[in-house]
């Protein structure tokens, strides 16, 4: 019965509320459609700043917003649910709760997730960074390592070396490495009596010959210099062969690690394969210039999940192209609604790339509005401005700005909270202590 | 060897970094002592605002601060650890990590925890509110209930009634009830397409004849009126006899509940009993006028853990007396260090009590600087001012002020994030949906 009332309106179903999905929904906010967006989370996460939640500069609510609060258009409904099946023939999507949704146009923008290269047992030992939950787990482990070291030192006068190992030397790996170095050397400087946090050693293990391989060579070099300046140890051509509690193996070499983080592999959301169309090696859906998988002009694939090639070059899986694909898809659907064909294929307008390395350290390849390769302080300032600008909501911009001011000017981190378990996998406590006799009581200096 | 260097300095050991413990440490920041503070958490939690983290107004970092960042005095060290034994004879405390700490003066201020009256199986079904983790769990459950109801409604056109049951009508129970009502009626008003969040029903089950029983009768009445105004259902003399997934039993009556919260029983930290001295029925340590347990003038019990009677009246387990006991104990220890006896017994300077009920609704018994019973908007304003003032750190005050401004002026809640599991114990999903045939596909209006 309900169907009759809206029989004339086409149903647009968007899966995923990342940059791509949100931009589709925003683009169609005033369109004469019935729009449903489904996401597993109730919030959109501003992923470029997720590492700052992990390293205690920002709070989750600074970079995440309820999807319902972003998409308030009367034609839009939001469901917090998970997709378990897509039937392209009957144009129906089944959700975990049992709900079945019909669509006329389907936009799949469910992004990517970690890939442990088939070694899913590594996941618990080396968390990656994709969700708020991931960020809080990384925060917990990194901060806890210092606390446990202080306890050990207080008791025995020694502690396991504070070696942090980051697997993967892409932007996320570099950001995590720089931030841990900042915490250890700047923000915790005077917080402990027994340990010296600045003795912490951060190592990046990168399998390829270069860190930040998507950047021009001169910026890679500048990034390496800045990492060296922070004391971060970078090892390229280092293929991790095993991850264990307390250490990592690179071939026959055992590298001790109190906290191991994963920033190496990325694979497409499983929805790509579920769809039953052509996917690439990472599970991304191969699409044509209109972002359609072969044979399905009613389906659009946007963001990280899309394998798009323009002039033989693959569009990278980062925020800018995801947003642009979202906007493009919304426009395309509007054309189709008016009965017009889609005229232009998707064009990626490359404004550049940037990655922070630490406080006052960054690299930026600026492609628009002028061309320039920046590094160091200017790149860092550019990074700050761009990221504040792209945050959703005035409230979050204000909050992040205030947090950054405190952290970068006053060396005070606002979100240094350890929540959850107080265990660290593989932490080597001094066993003897538990059986110490009263005569062996340790004392503080 | 390390011992020699500081042999002249007395060792003060503080257990717990709540209001009491922190105030002892602050009071001794300049004293010629060797001070160690031990807490299980790395942060101090401003408990009076914890319910605002639970109900998504504030972020954890707004009301919690790293203990190390608060206590920066050179004579003070902080350990994140747990006490497992206290030996009063040899004056030694053993921590979970194995560390053994000697003390000359011991301050125990480990507060209180939930009491499920021996029914610990209720804990998972009805979380209480003492820690940041508790607050996030309550937030998750409350927000998730609305999302699951929306899914059910979308699919089947009906959903389980959004009944929230709060067991306990003290300040925490009243605050939780009012906040859930605010979320449902004010902050989520236009967020859902299928459900009407304002149909949510909040019920307080209080075992005694009165809510807010520590307040004067006229304020209790005013509180009841304000709760009624918010649509909160208050049932007094309602003894909960069982808590089950999806419902609560009061005698033979079954009360449906999609989310049950616990604000009823409080018991002292187990350290009271571990100490092997006289405790009261709730496990609080019975102390003399100097806050000593009988026969131990080197031990001070502060805050909720202390059973202190002044003129036959027990000092309540809230923030103000805890702070005052902390300050008093620091002064007492300074006297003892100078070889002087402690002259005055502890005196509780009662400034009053206040509890919020919702946006613009509160009760306040003001005892200082003037005597007055306030309720409604004036009480709420007084509450805002007092709580901003007592927050630790300018940064947090600013952050909370901003969040309140957004929430109370613009009806926008900043921290409405669901993290963790997407299951709710006892949630009655529409089973038929899972086996629906394509013909039975549900549609949106």
N- and C-termini, Cα separation of chain A: 78 Å
Oligomer: homodimer
What is the 3D shape of chain A?
Answer: globular
Give the chain pair forming the largest contact, with residue counts. Answer: A-B, 75 and 73 residues
Using the coordinates shown, work out and report the CATH topology of the domain at 121-264 in chain A: FAD/NAD(P)-binding domain
Mean of all residue-level pLDDT scores of chain A: 92
Q: Which CATH-level-2 architecture of the domain at 121-264 in chain A?
A: 3-Layer(bba) Sandwich
**Class by SSE composition of chain A:** alpha/beta
Kindly state the number of beta strands of chain A: 26
* Largest sheet entry of chain A: 5 strands, parallel
Q: Report the CATH superfamily of the domain at 121-264 in chain A.
A: FAD/NAD(P)-binding domain
Beta-strand fraction estimate of chain A: 15-25%
Helical percent range of chain A?
25-40%
Outline the structure in words.
The structure is a homodimer of 445-residue chains. By secondary structure, chain A is of the alpha/beta class. Among the domains of chain A are: 2-40 and 81-111 and 269-337, FAD/NAD(P)-binding domain, CATH 3.50.50.60; 121-264, FAD/NAD(P)-binding domain, CATH 3.50.50.60. In chain A, 30% of the residues lie in helices and 24% in strands. The first copy, chain A, has 12 helices and 26 strands. A 5-stranded parallel sheet of chain A has the order 5-2-1-9-20, with helices on one face. The first copy, chain A, has a 4-stranded parallel sheet with strand order 13-12-11-17. In chain A, strands 6-7-8 form a 3-stranded antiparallel sheet, with no helix packed on it. In chain A, strand 15 and strand 16 (253-256) form a beta hairpin. In chain A, helix 2 (19-27) packs parallel to helix 10 (319-337). Chain A is globular. The termini of chain A are far apart.
């Amino acid at each position: 019965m309900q169907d009759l009332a809206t029989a004339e309106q086409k149903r647009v179903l968007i899966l995923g509320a990342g940059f791509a999905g949100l931009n589709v929904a925003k683009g169609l906010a005033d369109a004469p459609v019935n729009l449903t967006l489904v996401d597993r989370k109730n919030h959109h996460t501003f992923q470029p700043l997720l590492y700052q939640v992990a390293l205690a500069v920002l709070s989750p609510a600074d970079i995440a917003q309820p999807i319902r609060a972003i998409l308030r258009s009367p034609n839009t409904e939001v469901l917090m649910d998970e997709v378990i099946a897509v039937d392209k023939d009957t144009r129906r999507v089944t959700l975990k709760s049992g709900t079945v949704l019909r669509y006329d146009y389907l936009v799949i923008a469910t992004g990517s997730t970690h890939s442990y290269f088939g070694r899913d047992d590594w996941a618990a030992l080396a968390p990656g960074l994709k969700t708020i939950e991931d960020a809080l787990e990384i925060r917990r482990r990194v901060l806890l390592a210092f606390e446990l070291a202080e306890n050990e030192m207080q008791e025995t006068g020694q502690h396991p070396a504070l070696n942090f190992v980051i697997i993967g030397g892409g932007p996320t790996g570099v950001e995590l490495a720089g931030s841990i170095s900042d915490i250890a050397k700047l923000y915790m400087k005077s917080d402990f009596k027994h340990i010296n946090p600045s003795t912490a050693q951060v190592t990046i293990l990168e399998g390829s010959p270069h860190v930040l391989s998507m950047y021009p060579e001169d910026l890679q070099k500048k990034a390496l210099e800045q990492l060296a300046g922070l004391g971060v140890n970078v090892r390229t051509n280092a293929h991790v062969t095993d991850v264990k509690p307390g250490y990592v193996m690179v071939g026959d070499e055992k590298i001790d690690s109190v906290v191991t983080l994963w920033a190496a592999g990325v694979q497409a959301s499983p929805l790509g394969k579920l769809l039953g169309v052509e996917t690439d090696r990472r599970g991304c859906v191969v699409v044509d210039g209109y972002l359609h998988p072969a044979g399905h002009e009613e389906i659009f694939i946007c963001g990280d999940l899309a394998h798009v090639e323009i002039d033989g070059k693959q569009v990278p899986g980062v925020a800018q192209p995801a947003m642009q694909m979202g906007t493009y898809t919304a426009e395309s659907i509007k054309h189709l609604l008016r009965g017009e064909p889609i005229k232009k294929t998707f064009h990626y307008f490359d404004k550049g790339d940037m990655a922070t390395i630490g406080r006052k350290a960054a690299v930026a390849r600026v492609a628009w509005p002028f061309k320039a390769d920046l590094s160091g302080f200017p790149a860092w300032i550019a990074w700050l401005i761009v990221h504040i600008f792209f945050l959703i909501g005035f409230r979050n911009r204000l909050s992040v700005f205030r947090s950054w001011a405190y952290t970068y000017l006053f060396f005070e981190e606002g979100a240094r909270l350890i929540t959850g378990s107080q265990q660290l996998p593989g932490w080597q406590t001094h066993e003897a202590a538990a059986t110490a006799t009263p005569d062996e009581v340790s004392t503080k200096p």
